[in-house]
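S.,

Sequence below, as promised.
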Amino acid sequence: MIGFGPISKLAKSGVLGINSRNLDFIAAYNPRRFYPLVDDKVITKKLAIEAGVTVPELYGVIRYGGEMHLLEKIAEKHRSFVVKPANGSGGGGIMVFNGVAKTGLRRMNGQIMAWPDIRYHLNNMLSGMFSMGDGSDQVMIEERLVPHSAFSKLAFGGVPDVRVIVFRGIPVMAMLRLPTAESDGKANLHQGGIGAGIDLVTGITTRGVQHNDSVDVHPDFETPVRDFQVPSWDEILELASRLGQHIGLGYVGVDIVICEHKGPTLLELNARPGIAIQTANLKGLRPLLLPIHKLPSVPDDVHERIAIAHANWNGESLERFLAPGEEMRRH
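The prediction came back faster than expected:
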């Protein structure tokens, strides 16, 4: 049973606050024993593969300083790849390379990062500088995904992704995150990326925000950020729903890249997804979460869960999805 506290003005308007998110949904629906499944990206990748979800190919993992040489071997073979901390968050520590030079590796902006600087950065990753925990970390080296060609005028120097909030295996809200020159090619809102709200039924963007300010066009291309049809939308919702159900967490953020060659591909999972997605959609999460919380059970079939997601987004009653003899929870 959820014990909702005093209703603030924000709650009355439908906006989910950080305290309510933590208490009423994360603490109530996300058993802590499952956190390592999403906090450690190596484990997440294995679980996604088990669930039949497409993921970026893992080229290698550096677990301690003596394995630094692995990066040079991988660079010689693949030339283009991503380096990230296995337990990182918020995009911290991630580096993207797309070429090899005599003195180091070429970054997406064309600059060469020297080998001593690369090793120093990797050591910082291993020490846990970019990690959510207090201990050491591992360095993942994985495939650099090529964004779908539809994003050619909407993503500057990086790969856009779709964040889907999934509650009890049912998608409730989504946004498209677009990299900009200001964000250094990262699809991270805190670093200057754009968040575009998405109509959950159609997959069409409705508005854009940057630094919490409304934006109509991408600052680097002057391309409209609204009324954009996100490719493979039905597949994205199914992927998010299937993985959200499989992972064992009731409230989770699923980040998906639409790759030109692989289609919708899991980027990562987040057991503590942020609430800025409400600003991007100009819509509160609370009225979308409560009807799903009141369902006594949710169907195992992913297509039935997507049907619930559509009805819920449109503000329809979910009583028609009840099994015979079931009643909606009253609390």
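The chain has two domains: 5-53+148-321, 58-143.

Coffee later?
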